[in-house]
Prior knowledge:
CATH architecture of chain B: 2-Layer Sandwich
Structural class of chain B: alpha/beta
Helix content of chain B: 10-25%
Strand content of chain B: 15-25%
Helix content of chain A: 40-55%
Largest sheet of chain A: 3 strands, antiparallel
Strand order of the largest sheet of chain A: 1-2-3
Shape of chain A: globular
Order of helices and strands of chain B: EHEEHEEEEHEH
Number of domains of chain A: 2
CATH class of the largest domain in chain A: Mainly Alpha
Shape of chain B: elongated
Oligomer: heterodimer
Number of helices of chain A: 16
Number of domains of chain B: 1
CATH architecture of the largest domain in chain A: Orthogonal Bundle
CATH class of chain B: Alpha Beta
Distance between the termini of chain A: 47 Å
Number of strands of chain B: 8
Amino acid sequence: MALDTHSERRTETLEIPGSDLPRTEEMMVNMGPQHPSTHGVLRAVLTLDGERIVDVDSDVGYLHRCFEKICEQQNYPQIIPYTDRTDYLAGMTNELALVLTVEKAIGLEVPRRAQYIRTIMAELQRIHSHLIWFGTFALDMGATTPFLYSFRERETISDFFEEITGARMMYNYMRYGGVRNDITSEWVKKVQAFLKRFPENLQEYDDLFTGNPIVHARTQGIGKISAEQAIAYGASGPVLRATGVPYDIRRADPYLVYDELQFDIATASEGDVWARYQVRMQEMRQSVRMLEQLLAGVPEGEIMGKAPRIIKVPAGHYYGHVDSPRGEVGCYLVSTGERTPYRLHWRSPCFVHLQLLPLMAKGHLMADMVAIIGSIDIVMGEVDR
Amino acid sequence: MGSDPIELDKVKGEIQVLVARRADGPALTSGAQAIREQFPDLEVSIRPDQWLEMAVTPDRLLPVAQVLRDQLGYTYLLSLTGVDWQEKGLQVVYHLQNLDKGLFLVLTVALPAQDPHIPSVTHLWPTANWQEREAWDLVGIYFDGHPDLRRILMKEGWPGHPLRKDYRDTRPLRERLPKTERR
Lengths: 385, 183
């Protein structure tokens, strides 16, 4: 077989009866749980026909820490730090999912300044998380340099978080009724200065990576899903938006001050790895746009509302969701009126997205698996909880 | 805003499905009315947090879910989980969304405490696959007709279902500690 037919064959599906493609004996290969490109401890059992993927069976649960069971033993303020540890790359948005659900259930007013600060933190977190994704995704594809560049900017954002919350990753910053620490005008100036030069950095990433023909060859047409499939499989966030569905909770079910902000929902229509890549790169630009508006208009005032000393949620069940960098983080809270939740279910986007893996990978080469896993942007801490 | 679809100029990229903003007021009431017309004998309530809520019995789940998805547009299953209400039995909770109209619906199904069986909705919403496996693994609910009902987060052969309220870890303390902390 001539080598030049290779690029045409790779997008074909495998099961073609009567096909003249040579078939070999199927073989099972373990990818992970200690594989560097699985971003944690994902074990994917691949069924291979030569280099081509016939089936994928994901094995998760290596990081299971009984998060939901632990929450049943803790009172409400004690749960906040645990939510940081579900998706450790987007702690702020995870805390938000919990505190917004509880605040809605007990009818707690949040001062406007606190709402602004929360939105600023959530959007900084989005850039922070997407930068890690960009670096590791490029690393997965064999490009080492973008990783160093993206971590340079990520360090700056980590410093911003550290200055306000005291932590670079596990913030424990949101409170029922507001936030723990106030931001200062110097901090605002520093972030604004960063935002001013960040688009240039993004341009740098584009120069380094986005225009590279090897990247195009390895991402376009790989791991493709349709909009119908994405909706049926419950995809959310960039994975869903990359199929042309503009579903963004910040617009569809607005929370905090997103209603007052000007921003575009980043979408792409192809639904492949390349589309997901573009959506995330666009989202960073949109986050910059939102942050500029937010930082220009932070109102004066309190950062904590009148929260009761002891939080008791009225009996009933509540569902709250926010748009995390990875997708929809849902918090389902069942209360019997006690100081601890009766049941707390964490709907994590990565857990749901991993189900799409066989759909995305079938018929592609084993090397594409790395790109596909990278494009879902999984965090195993969130999958296994 | 009601149920207006998102303005197209607010969106970058090619659009295949329009997504509406969360419905409230009359749009929400008509959403509830549409369900009532399909199922006159079921009670549909509007919650204070603007979610629709309805409860069905396990034997009616499949016909109701089929109509909800195919005729009422609830194509998007947000979350599926189980709750253990101890002597009052178990409960499975579905959170659904109608993307076109911006309607959110929570569907609850009560199950007996002994031998809880419920039909699987995997063929309607494929996303239910892993979420049902998780509910089986952690809460111990049998989803009949599920293609692959295995444990997902706990390892195979784990005794009991950890999110049951009466679950006790029966392993000796020595086994529960990680190796480094053993003496």
